[in-house]
Design a protein that fits this description.
Number of domains: 2
CATH class of the largest domain: Mainly Beta
CATH architecture of the largest domain: Beta Barrel
Oligomer: single chain
Strand content: 35-45%
CATH superfamily of the largest domain: Acid Proteases
CATH topology of the largest domain: Cathepsin D, subunit A, domain 1
Structural class: mainly beta
Largest sheet: 13 strands, mixed
Mean pLDDT: 89
Distance between the termini: 21 Å
Helix content: under 10%
Radius of gyration: 20 Å
Number of helices: 6
Length: 322
């Protein structure tokens, strides 16, 4: 696992990357991003590989609110570079969007980062992010050993391929679970204002937000967004508990006794377009409570994302209990 250093003014935890070869060329540094639907490559890498642009384009909305149409290309002969001289893991044919992105030049020791790997690829494997040991491992579906880990119920969010869990905070007695999607392509965690209300946090104009640090977020288009922060711990809620008489949910399963909430971090608060658009149904924007769980929480522990299922949107996420 490669960790891409943040600039001195950066907030959160270092991005993660691995090395890839494509058609025998490389290796090239690729960020790993579970908050990204498809794969990306830079125009620079497109030139190195000599790939011609096709007529297909993908329209996407960046965090700054700008709609961008980028060309799609096929990546053939891609493999993960092991780095010890052995043959790397051969990957299936990938579809990549050609675009520049802010993290491309974020770390002088890994400049440029030539692409990103998103859920189109990651969903094909059980992906083991072993942050304490600084390694990423990809297994055939069902090939991971999750003994000693806590299995958290999760779901694939609409057609985005992103994985969501029920998030709560133990720091507020009136906290209600909200939807949080796991995004190892974000250095920090962010919640929208409806999520702040559901979690029992102070309202938008409370002085607590003026006293803490602010975060300048970047969308894929590079436009800045300034967000206030508040320091909190996060935890998760399990499946709904159903009343046997009424058939209605009356609460949620609690984590096991072995589970310890994630350590507290400065959580950004703001209504990023990513919430309304990724979590929407493609017709109506989502306007409910939501969270983007970034590397400031995820990198605290080992986490395994289960591969996709052909029959269900349900997933399992296994995380070290402490």
């Amino acid at each position: 696992m490669i960790r891409l250093k943040l600039p001195k003014s950066g907030f959160g935890r270092e991005y993660i990357a691995l090395k890839m070869k494509i058609e025998g060329k490389g290796p090239f540094d690729f960020m790993v991003d579970s908050g990204l639907t498809t794969e990306l490559i830079t125009p620079h890498l497109q030139g190195i590989l000599g790939i011609n642009e096709g007529s297909n384009k993908l329209t996407a909305l960046a965090s700054g609110g700008k709609t961008i149409a980028n060309s799609l290309v096929e990546l053939k002969g891609a493999s993960i570079d092991i780095g010890d001289g052995s043959s790397g893991l051969a990957l299936p044919k990938l579809t990549a969007v050609i675009t520049n992105f802010p993290q491309e030049h974020i770390d002088p020791t890994h400049d440029p980062v030539e692409g990103m790997l998103g859920m189109e690829l990651l969903q094909l494997f059980d992906v083991d992010f072993d942050f304490p040991k600084n390694r990423i491992r990809l297994y055939e579906p069902g090939g991971t050993d999750t003994s000693g880990l806590v299995e958290i119920p999760a779901v694939v969010i609409n057609e985005s391929l992103l994985i969501g869990i029920r998030v709560t905070t133990p720091d507020q007695s009136n906290s209600q679970p909200i939807l949080g999607f796991l995004d190892c392509g974000s250095a920090f965690t962010c919640i929208n204002w409806k999520a702040a209300q559901a979690l029992g946090l102070p309202p938008k104009n409370d002085p607590v937000y003026r006293n803490g640090p602010t975060i300048t977020a970047l969308g894929i288009d590079g436009r800045p967004l300034t967000l206030p922060t508040i320091k909190k711990r996060l935890s998760y809620a399990g499946n709904p508990i159903i009343d046997p008489k009424s058939g209605r949910p009356i609460g949620f399963e609690s984590p096991p006794a072995s589970w310890k909430p994630w350590d507290s971090v400065q959580i950004a608060v703001g209504d990023l377009p990513v919430f309304s658009n990724i979590l929407g149904d493609g017709v109506t924007p989502y306007d409910g409570p939501a969270a983007l769980i970034g590397l400031d929480f995820l990198a605290q522990r080992r986490i395994i994302l289960e591969a996709k299922s052909d029959t269900s949107r349900r997933r399992k996420v296994a995380i070290s209990p402490r």
